[in-house]
Design a protein that fits this description.
four-stranded antiparallel beta sheet, 15% strand, 468 residues, Aspartate Aminotransferase, domain 2, binds pyridoxal-5'-phosphate, alpha/beta
Length: 468
């Protein structure tokens, strides 16, 4: 467990890595910062001294603490792809399955799947909540919890969603088995096989496989590493193709890690509304921003629009709980409930009731405050290591939240071949081609940073560097 000053230092390191405090910026004054956080000045001094020792900031006499220029980091600035290829089917299942299986193999250093190491998760609190529910709610725990799912959980989710805008009711929420199922149900509610669905590019490979399993065609829209899906390219694509739905991860996208501005989120929803296209908003990383403020959601900014909002607690509480949800508008709620029922009847009851308890008692928010800083510092540390060990010409993303790093390798490197060789040496990474249906990102890889930093991880990065 990190002490308070280490948490503050980790959070600031992440904010610096994400560019929230840029080179030359003055950090908030000691007294003001201490007051704002409700901690002692000595704690803030200790945090700033730690950052100074790690080379993030420098003290200037009688003037305060300033962010230093970190010359070694080369960031990916331009969108890596040009305007849309025609809609395509999806491939690459076997490498995806190798990654997924590696995620639960303790013999492999897991930098591939975006699954947090349990050390980042509140495993004790989750275990206690599960045990309590199994003991005190025996009959409900033993029964089906039919769609839309446990009322107390839907109530808690609606309360949290309403804090980011709009007014979400518990009746709008349908509980699902993770965000992956939420995305699948949302897509099934607004498309038919062979329809065209627009996605940001690069896109999370799990989404591409859901699209493939539903026989949907994928239209890739380039995304900028800092600002998100290119709205002009999307408008152009909507003119050319009969797009039914558009799936976007506006907050801390996977793999680029950007957070779209409120203006871009509004412009995206307006564009899709004008063209009659449903937005499927995936907000699975929304609680994991490196800045203090929780970002807005498209659904919160424009609650009347045709938006199916999908999320889960897999990146925060526990992926094993498999608790996700769709927040649907009135017209689609019944359809989503029905699709949930035909898919799996109901999501397991005990995790639903335990999650409701964890949200109810404020522990979730306390945990989030801590883990955001830890993820930020894990991303900062991985960024530094990649720039130190990987060859000249390597460039990386600057995520504003979440815990994945998108790495552009020199042009001649084949990321897929690297991933295959690395797996043979006990290291799993995600090759860039999995994030595209049209063969893009051959010289990219994605690294999951939510690992405990130890000698084994450092050795794994050195092994990758040797292979490179
Ligand atoms: C952007 C995104 N959406 C959805 C999911 C799936 O989440 P869950 O584990 O809740 O099904 C992931 C998992 O990596 C993800 O990165």
């Amino acid at each position: 467990m990190e002490t308070l000053y280490q948490q503050i230092a980790a959070e600031l390191a992440g904010q610096i890595a994400a560019g929230i405090h840029g080179p030359g910026d003055r950090l908030p004054g000691l007294r003001g910062h201490a007051l704002q956080r409700g901690v002692s000045v000595a704690t803030v001094v200790a945090a700033y001294r730690k950052l100074e020792d790690e080379g993030y900031i420098e003290a200037r006499s009688r003037s305060g603490f300033y962010v230093r220029t970190r010359k070694a980091i080369q960031t990916i600035e331009a969108g890596a792809s040009s305007v849309t290829a025609p809609p395509c089917p999806v491939t690459g299942q076997s490498m995806t399955m190798a990654l997924i299986k590696a995620a639960s193999n303790p013999g492999i250093v897991q930098l591939g799947a975006a699954v947090p190491d349990p050390a980042y998760l509140p495993t004790n609190a989750v275990a206690r909540a599960l045990a309590r529910v199994a003991r005190t709610e025996r009959s409900r725990a033993a029964a089906y919890m039919m769609p839309p799912g446990a009322p107390e959980l839907r109530q808690q989710i609606a309360r949290r969603m309403s804090q980011t805008g709009g007014c979400v009711s518990a009746d709008d929420i349908v509980i699902t088995t993770g965000c992956q199922e939420a995305l699948s149900l949302a897509l099934r509610a607004c498309t038919r096989p062979h329809d065209v669905v627009a996605v940001e590019s690069p896109a999370f490979y799990g989404l591409l496989h859901v699209l493939e399993s539903l026989e949907l065609k994928v239209l890739e829209i380039p995304a900028h590493p800092r600002t998100g899906i290119a709205l002009d390219a999307l408008a152009f694509a909507l003119d050319r193709w009969p797009v039914k739905a558009c799936v976007v991860v506006p907050n801390f996208s996977n793999p680029l890690g950007y957070c779209m501005s409120d203006a871009s989120k509004r412009a995206l929803v307006e564009l899709l509304t004008q063209r009659g296209v449903t937005l499927i908003e995936d907000d699975v990383y929304g609680d994991l921003g490196f800045a203090n403020r929780r970002p807005s959601t498209c659904k919160g900014l424009m609650p009347q629009a045709d938006i199916l909002y999908c999320s889960s607690f897999s990146k925060t509480l526990s992926p094993g709980l498999r608790i996700g949800w769709v927040a649907a508008g009135e017209q689609r709620r019944e359809r989503i409930e029905y699709l949930k029922y035909v898919t799996s009847i109901a999501s397991p009851s005990v995790p639903q009731l335990a999650t409701a308890q964890l949200l109810e008692n404020g522990r979730y928010d306390r945990y989030l405050r801590e883990v955001r800083g830890r993820y930020a510092s894990a991303v900062a540390r991985m960024s530094d290591a990649v720039m130190k060990y990987f060859p000249e010409g390597t460039r990386i993303s600057q995520p504003a939240g979440g815990f994945v790093l998108w790495v552009e390798l020199p042009h001649h490197v084949d990321g897929f071949d690297l991933a295959r060789r690395a797996l043979r040496q006990g290291v799993s990474i995600a090759p860039g081609t999995l994030f595209s249906v049209s063969g893009k990102f051959g010289n990219f890889v994605r690294l999951s940073c939510a690992r405990v930093w130890d000698a084994r991880l450092e050795k794994a990065l050195l092994a990758l560097a040797r292979l490179l």
